[in-house]
Design goal:
Elements: E1 11-15, H1 19-30, E2 35-39, H2 42-50, E3 56-60, H3 68-78, E4 84-88, H4 91-94, E5 103-106, H5 111-122, H6 141-162, H7 165-173
Parallel strand pairs: 1-2, 1-3, 3-4, 4-5
């Protein structure tokens, strides 16, 4: 029996420099009747954030001019209890990095993955901090590392299939 609670009708600020990714995430959020305000970059997001209130901020990690964790830090400076979900294709690289997001979700993700995060993140403003050693959704660091490793392996395989060998070698050298 599935006892997952579906949260609906929240006001969400969605930040991603990729228009296709923004549209996809917005579509997933609209399934649960969330109101989504879009920002194409972190600077635009900060302007929108200072002019309104949001139940949740969802931001991509890798964006030009300001990374998603820097955006999260800036937002937390303005509103320390603001729930923030960081979404990224680089989940493995963020596990041990200190960041100001309340949760991290690896791309690609499904509507069910997103729905699992919503209750905890949108209730965060009313609840105390999570115990040390756990994420805001109760996953241990070991669980996060395992999920990150799996996600990274899947993404690497996708890249190997889609990119010509010559281009992949250049991409790996730049890491």
């Amino acid at each position: 029996m599935n006892t997952q609670v579906t949260v609906s009708g929240k006001k969400i600020l969605l930040v991603d420099d990729d228009p296709a990714a923004r549209e996809s995430i917005k579509l997933l959020l609209s399934l649960d009747r969330h109101t989504v305000t879009e920002a194409a970059n972190a600077h635009e997001a900060l302007q929108l954030f200072t002019g309104s209130t949001y139940d949740l901020v969802i931001t991509d990690y890798l964006m030009p001019n300001m990374l998603g964790d820097d955006l999260a830090r800036n937002i937390k400076h303005i509103a320390p209890r603001q729930p923030i979900l960081l979404v990224t294709a680089y989940l493995e690289k963020l596990i041990d990095a200190g960041n100001f997001a309340d949760g991290v979700l690896g791309k690609p993700f499904s509507v069910d993955d997103l729905r699992r995060w919503m209750p905890t993140l949108t209730e965060r403003t009313a609840s105390p901090e999570a115990p040390a050693g756990t994420s805001s959704v109760g996953l241990s660091q070991a669980d996060l590392r395992a999920r990150a490793s799996t996600t990274t392996t899947v993404l690497d395989e996708i890249l190997r299939r889609k990119l010509p060998a010559r281009r992949l070698d250049r991409w790996e050298m730049n890491e």
